[in-house]
Write a structure and sequence with these properties.
Elements: E1 3-10, E2 13-20, E3 23-26, H1 34-40, H2 42-47, E4 56-58, E5 63-65, E6 74-78, H3 82-87, E7 99-103, E8 108-109, E9 115-117, E10 124-125, E11 128-134, E12 153-160, E13 163-164, H4 165-168, H5 174-177, E14 184-185, E15 190-192, E16 205-210, E17 213-219, H6 227-235, E18 245-247, H7 260-267, H8 273-284, E19 296-302, E20 309-319, H9 325-328
Parallel strand pairs: 6-18, 8-14, 9-20
Antiparallel strand pairs: 1-2, 1-5, 1-15, 2-3, 3-4, 6-7, 10-13, 11-12, 11-18, 12-15, 16-17, 16-19, 19-20
Length: 329
């Protein structure tokens, strides 16, 4: 069985622990980052359940933090499920290349934190994704296979790739539209995989609810580009380090639903930005599926037999009341 590693805050102190039932077994040592934990703390985490007189604390009595910490590269796969490709106005079949973009690590937030909607964002969307935490340095081209994948993947996390569609699409800025602070709820814990559990990566059930309405339901076996080939692809281009995060893509069921006609208008560089923005907002708000203040998003990822269970996220959407320079202009 894998290990559920928790990063939490109690009385303004950040600590690490291992979840056992409803209790957190507190690690004696502290770690400044996930990278440091993976380097120095994994063995302590693996052995803590065999120790006696371990300090514990109830899971529901602490503030759960994202197990992925800054600094970290957050690398994302786009439109990696056929169902999501269809609803974005693309061909459903596997494309000839892996779509890759990134997300700022300042967007990281906890599994129960509030998602703060910028006041100017009207098309706030959700994207449940299986997150893979990198476990080894990759600084040159490597051939990653299902047989050696365990050498590069430390564990799994639930991630919600929250997206401001009215920034991402009409501006053509995916990084900006997906990187507002709190736009990356991660956790509640990092599931450290045993080598024997690696095959489960390609057979996990993903479900997301908005206000108890099931919106997304898929299985990771539907991924068009699998983790091994994606890491091989990425190794040709960029460096990756322990503690970095790879998001494997979201399935169908998001609020976004584009027709080919709207897609072509958004992609047309000769059409003024404001005109594209207004058309997109008017077209998309008709569905009533975009997130509103007060909405509750709930996410789960687990294997059908329950051997692997990444826990549950629950995040409330609120308006960001901090001063916005954009809205004051």
């Amino acid at each position: 069985m894998g290990i559920k590693v928790v990063r939490f805050e109690k009385e303004n102190q950040e600590q690490w622990g291992v979840l056992s039932g409803e209790e957190i077994l507190i690690l004696e040592n502290t770690y400044a980052s996930l990278a440091e934990f993976l380097e120095k703390g994994k063995e302590e985490a693996k052995s803590i359940q065999a120790k006696i007189n371990v300090e514990t604390i109830p899971f529901n009595e602490v503030t759960i933090l994202s197990p992925v910490t800054k600094p970290a590269r957050i690398i994302c796969q786009g439109v990696n499920y056929s169902t999501h490709r269809s609803e974005t106005g693309m061909e459903a079949s596997r494309p000839p290349y892996n779509m890759i973009f990134s997300k700022a690590d300042s967007s990281l937030s906890g599994a129960y934190s509030e998602i703060k909607r910028p006041p100017h964002v009207k098309l706030l969307d959700y994207e449940l994704e299986l997150g893979l935490v990198i476990g080894a340095d990759i600084s040159e081209a490597v051939d990653v296979t299902n047989e050696n994948l365990h050498q590069y993947i430390a564990g799994l996390v639930i991630v919600n790739d929250v997206s401001a569609r009215d920034v991402q699409l009409p501006q053509g800025q995916w990084l900006k539209g997906k990187s507002y602070r709190t736009f990356c709820p991660t956790g509640p814990y990092l599931y450290l995989l045993d080598k024997e559990e690696l095959p489960f990566i390609n057979d996990l059930e993903l479900n997301l609810w908005v206000n108890d309405e099931l919106r997304q339901s898929a299985n990771s076996n539907q991924l068009l580009y699998k983790p091994a080939e994606t890491l091989t692809d990425l190794s040709e281009v960029i460096d990756l380090s322990p503690g970095d995060l790879l998001l494997t893509g979201t399935a169908g069921g998001v609020a976004l639903n584009l027709t080919l006609e709207v897609n072509s208008i958004i992609a047309n560089l000769s059409i003024p930005y404001q005109q594209k923005l207004e058309l997109l907002v008017e077209n998309q708000l008709k569905s009533g599926k975009y997130l509103k203040d007060g909405d509750i998003i709930r996410c789960q990822i687990k294997s059908a037999d329950g051997v692997i269970n990444l826990g549950e996220q629950m995040n409330k959407v609120v308006m960001n009341k901090e001063k916005s320079l954009i809205d004051s202009k």
